[in-house]
TrEMBL record:
It is found in: Secreted, Extracellular space, Extracellular matrix. Residues 161-250 form the Fibronectin type-III domain. Its main location: secreted. This is COKA1 protein.
Amino acid sequence: GLSQYSSDPRTEWDLSTYSTRDQVLEAVRNLRYKGGNTFTGLALTHVLEQNLKPDAGARLEAVKLVILLTDGKSQDDANLAAQTLKNLGIEIFAIGVKNADEAELKQVASEPLELTVYNVLDFPLLSSLVGRLTRVLCTRIKEKSNKENTDIPVNMGPQLSPTDLKISAVTSKSMYLTWSPPPRPPKKYRIVYYPSKGGIPKEVLLDGAVSSLRLSNLTSHTEYLVSVFPIYDTVVGDGLRGVTSTLPLSSPRSLRVSELSHNSIRLSWKAAQGATQYLVLCSAAPDGAED
């Protein structure tokens, strides 16, 4: 499988799209380069949420490897996203080209770093890595395959997926999530949420026995995208997704003016629920400076 990224990751093909070496090589030859920003953390999150799930061809019994190829320093938190993958037993190899940040490559990659971190000065030099990287990858797969339990049935997609995401008790700063757990309880749930018009994704990890969560400290009057992913020992199940807008902050009402004098006026209004302070601006009409 392969995804490209800049500020918006894009799946080029899934793990299950091609079944022969020639098909994959032909797809690589036809690949169009995607320029732009370097949001590596968002890209790794995309791989976890979109590419490493049963619908995209991820097999429960298969070893999970991610090879990151980058030519720049990430503009978001790549380390946090990488740690989430590594905590799930997914091994990351980091390959830097040109302006890649070697310290960041070492943060993102799995141990031992002498086998998982590579850095070259320009793209043509990537060919020099192919032989060694191929041998290392094959060896790691064999090692991990020998350690992992392969007795898990393959066709368990519906068994691994929660259903019926409900979002309720929405306020200007919070919302409440509930869902029905899958028939096979997960080890953990990973909840990701962020504003639909752009913003840094935030995430919460929950014990697999819990199937509800209150999201708080949200921004008012903002549409949020919410995803709930079940996490198992060797795979991430299909996620639930929802979208809901927080309520606008309540406003003061019924503004009244009284007690006028030559240099003062008194204002009164009905309180805004939840307000802790008020800011009052006044100016001389029609275009005086505000005080």
